[in-house]
Amino acid sequence: MTGTRPRESAVDRIRERVEEKAARRAAAREAATRPPAADPDRPPAGLPTPEQLPGVTAHSPTHIPWAGWKQIVKRSWAEHNADNMPIIAGGVAFFGFLAIFPALIASISIYGLVASPETVTEQVESFSSQLPDEAATLIGEQLTSITENSGSALTFGLITSILAALWSASGGVGNLVTAVNLAYDEVETRGFVKRKLLSLGLTLGAVVFVLVALTLVAVVPAVLEDLPLGVVGTVLAQVARWGLLFVVFAGSLAVLYRLAPDRDAPQMRWVSLGSLVVTLVWAAVSVGFSIYVNNFGSYDKTYGAIAGVIVLMLWLYLTCYLVLLGAEINAETEHQTAVDTTDGDPAPMGARGAVVADTLPEKPEPAKGDSSPTAKNAS
C-alpha cells in the first residue's frame, strides 16, 4: 500500500540491538581512557532532576522512592521484551534440562561419599516431591538409575565421572551466564577459558546449593522429629528452615547476577534486593504451577509418556524467565542512579566499566512501540 511504512523484521531489530550495545560498549571504553574527574562523587553535568528521575542520587536501592521504582519496573519489562528474553529463557531452559541430570549425577556422587545410595535416593525423592507429580516421577526414575550404578568409594572412576558430569552441566550454566550478560546490556569480551572456568565455578556452586537445599528439605525434618522441641518450637524450626532455604536461594541468585555479566562487579546491595524479590515470586509461581499441574492440568493425557519431560521443562522455563527478569530489574535499578554502583573506589560516570553504571536512561519511562525502550544516555 502506498504511504505505509514497511514493517521492521525481527532479525533487523535484533541486529540493531546488537549494534547499539556494541556501540555503547565502545563508548564506555573510550570514556574510561579519559582522565578521571577530580571528584568522582560530584554529579555529572546535565544530571536529571529528582522529579525527572527519582532516585538519581540514591546510594542504595532502598533509597529509591516509589516513583523511581515505577520507572524501573516499566523499563525492566520493556527491556525484557526488547531483548527477546522470553525466547532466550526458552533456550536456557532447554539447555538447563540437559544439564539437570549431569548435575544430579555429580551431586549424588559427592553426597554418596558420606551416605548410602538408598539414603540418598530417599532424601532426593523427598526433595523432588515439592515439584509437580510428573516431574517428580521423572526425576525419581533417573535417581534410581543413577544410584544403582554409583559407589561409595572415592575411586579414580568416580572422580572422572564427577568431573565429566560437572563439565556437561556447565554447558547449561554457560548459557545462563550469556543470557544474564545480555540482560545487563554488556557485550561478551571474555575468552573461552575464562567463560568456561566461570561456568564451572557457578556449576560447582549450584551443586553445593542442591546439597544444602537437600539437607534443609529432606534431612532436617527427620532430625527435628527426634528433638523434644514441642509444638511451638517445631513450628518455629520449620519456619526457620524454609526461611533459610529462601535466603540461600536468593544469595545464589545474587552471586549469579554479580559474577555473570562481563563488567566491573556491582556492589552486593545492588543485586541483593532484586534477588530476594525474584525468590519470593519464584516460590509463589512454583507453588501455583504445581497446584495447577496436579489438580487441573492434563499433561499425561496430552503428552503420554513424555508428560514428565514437558512439565519439568515448563517449570524450568518459568524459573529461567523469572531469573532473567530479575537481572533486568537489577540492571535498571543501577541505571536509575548516577552514584557509582560498582565495587572499589568511586569512579566518575564513563569510567566504571559497566554500561548501566556508566549511563543514565535517556527516557525514564519507555514509550509504547519504541524499538529502543531504554536507550542509554552517557551523562
UniProtKB/TrEMBL annotation:
Give the compositionally biased regions (Basic and acidic residues): 1-32
Record protein name field: Membrane protein
Query: What membrane topology does the UniProt entry give?
Result: Multi-pass membrane protein
- Native source species: Blastococcus aurantiacus
Going by the entry's taxonomy, the superkingdom of the source organism is recorded as Bacteria
Pfam families recorded: Virul_fac_BrkB
Region Disordered, as annotated, extends over 1-60, 336-379
**GO-annotated cellular components:** plasma membrane
Tell me where the signal peptide lies.
none
Q: Where in the cell is it found?
A: Cell membrane
What keywords is this UniProt entry annotated with?
Cell membrane, Membrane, Transmembrane, Transmembrane helix
Membrane spanning residue stretches = 87-114, 153-177, 197-219, 239-259, 271-293, 305-327
